[in-house]
Amino acid sequence: xxxxxxxALRRLRLVSAPEAVSFLLLIICSVxxxxxxxxxxxxxxxxxGVLFVLxxxxxxxxxxxxxxxxxxxxxxxxxxxxxxxxxxxDRKLKREAEAAVIASRARREGxxxx
Length: 114
Fold this sequence. Notes:
This protein has one domain. Helix content is 84%, strand content 0%. The chain has four helices and no strands. It is a multi-pass membrane protein.
């Protein structure tokens, strides 16, 4: 894995968890708006919107650099629209990045996998 691909995956990981947290907070704010006088939906909506747009941009960049198949790319996109999906995307991306680093080191050291 080259450095630009690793950076693309890292950026996607960095935004996935905050995007999930903002989604959950937006849901909480929506409930509070309807049950109390507290209305933080406009602010939380904007925060979540910015994080979601960043997630989609970083997802597109990662898809382009990693050459994921459509099924994998669709999975990461679907995880972005589920309230806790960003947490699962973060874990899955972490495992994928670690596997890529191990494979890269093995190739560099000349180790052939069976």
